[in-house]
Design brief:
This protein is 13% helix and 48% strand. By secondary structure, it is mostly beta strands. Among the domains are: 176 residues, no CATH class; 171 residues, no CATH class. The protein has a 40-stranded mixed sheet that branches. The radius of gyration is 41 Å and the shape is elongated. One of its GO terms (biological process) is regulation of protein targeting to membrane.
Amino acid sequence: MTALKILLSMVLALALLLGGLLAWLHFADLTAHRSWLGAMIGNTIGRELRLQGDIDVDVWPELRLAVTQVSLANADWGSEPWMASVGQTELALRTASLWQRGPIEVRLASASNVDVLLESGPDGQSNLPIVSSESDADVQEAGGGIGVVLEKATFANLRVRRRSAQEEAVYTLSHLQLRADGNDQLQIEGEGRVREQPLRLSGRIGTRRQLASGGSIQYQLALQLGDADMILKGRREVPRPDVDGTLQLRLQVEGVPALLQALAVPLQLDGQVPSAGHLTADLRVAADSFEGALEAGFGELTLTTQLRGADNRLEVNGDIDNLQRLASIASVQGLPELPLVFAATLERRDHALAVPAFSLDIGGTKLEGRGSFAAEGVAGNFELDARGEMASELSPLLPELPFQLSTTLELDAGGLQLAPLSVRLGDSDLVGEASLGAASDGQRGALTAELVSKQIDLLQLLAVPAGPAETREGKAEPAAEPAAAAPYVFGEKRLPLAALRGNRVQIRWMVEELVTQFLVLEDVDLQAVLQDERLEITGRVVGADGGEGHNRLVLEAGKDQPRLTLRSQLRDFRVNLASGEVQKAEDIPPLSLSLDLNASGASPRELAASSAGEALLTMGPGLLTNSLMQTFSSDLVAQLVAALNPFSKTETHMQFQCGVIALLLEKGLANIDPVTIQTEKLQVVASGEVDLSDEAINMVFNTKPRKGVGVSADMFVTPFVSLEGTLAAPRMGLDEKGTLLTAGAAMATGGMSILWKGMMDRATGTIDHCKEEELQKYAHPPLD
């Protein structure tokens, strides 16, 4: 009896204590204790909570809590002192449901005049208060219900601001209400604004009991955001020990461009964005795994995906029916009209996301890789391998050659690095490493590269496929309309100098053998440096058949007027412009060039009109093939060669002895004097000018026979030939009587016309221009 009395006494004492606590909560003035309550809650969440208004509590017949003027402090690094404030909030529960079996019954949940600021700190952390959480196993309950039956919820004047270093987005709700209807369905209705776009929301989200117990839920929501309309409907079945869960949904969107604009989605979609889109999902969820399918449509573009997951592993595979259609949305041109097939396996390992394998297939091209992302979502390491039988399948701009690419990609806070990097395209190869540093202090990351190639075959890389382009159906594409002739060779379109602004580049590329159409170069050393809007490119080359060259280009775009400087020095290169198949390299005339040029301007036309400098081109003895000279030249040049050389149609080869072209350029006016070409049987001398301001040409050529070689002057029926017009539309004039050309034969310096000067030269044309003492006048300076 004594023990029973003690137990009854303890129960009575506990009941009295609980009754006293409830009575105190019911009748006490909690407003007087708001500082203490705020401090207690603030210590729990690790952030100051300020209670400045009234606190009202009732415990019977329902538990009701009403609080006004609540403020929650921001993170210490936040841009404002307070993260959130609530003007008024109220929560009402049926008191008996707190100790009875079954869900808690919420009669009313309301809040008004709510202002929330969400922002990220310098290291990417959120300003939301961080509280310790239990593991999923501790909080997950069988059935997956929320354990709450909601009767009514109302919210008014809600504002959420999301702030970042780039912008601040504002989302507002003037009102939002959830209320159970006569069939126990929770109806939702509200309106507000998102980024100044009007928002309307309506629909149903299942019955109250289904939400509380985790039963089957059918939902349908309609949302209008600006000019965009969305409908979301589906069914959810929460997994239970003996039943798999399912999720079925379909999202339809009308007005996709308006939706992307309203949400300020950072996608560069410059092409024709389809107006309609949809997403369908059908997933089956078991206790420890799930699988299902996603299907999305975006205009005529279709994406299908299969998903399978278990524990920390996810397998994804699918396809996009038309890669060209996808790229055209972002105004990316040149991609093939082929399906893209993809597959990937993802695993969560400790603090990283591993990708044991992924692949992309486009026609005959395959990309494979493996790697991982670090937990912070920035650092990553990937090994990539790509190969294909025809690079042109990816883009018509690429040649019809097989290719291979392999590299290891590393991404961290310092930037992106490709090391090692190996590329092969046909017979051309490239190995080395490249990196792109992270942006800092308003500067883009610096691009650096060290590259080496054993061979670069430009003949193979630039080869044009024979025959007309064909579509997937095999039909030839119609010929494009010929473009209207441009009035100027040097166009007036401004150069894209803005691309140099803020960029930093340092590249070195060494090529053991560079194959071109006219010569083979060896030991090519190219370097490019871009810093502070100043681009400098230098190149040193050696000819496989002799010769050496030094070249330097400097473009200073940061000045008030962009400035270009070009210096080129080539010595004794055997450039096979028209020698054809020769027995030995010595049969190719050696070519030397000295060029010093500077100009200023923002367009090619401005640069040409302001250019100044000088150039000297000389050629030594060798063999030229007359047919090749006309085959590899324009119609006009072919006519000019035929007019100046009466042997071009009767003799196969020409024994070339020497050539000199000197040019002096000042304020866009190029004075070309002399032009001297000497072969075994004839001499061609010329002089004139080209005004780059309007691109007008005024040149006169004078042809004369060499004495002592048995050639009669009567063979030269067109000794004088003029070249007139413009660079874009040149024309040739000739006079078989040698008395008159056209008005293009303008007055030269000193009052002597170009024509008269040519006639005097013809009358006294006994000089051998290829003698050493004559060529000494046009000797090139030594290489720098």
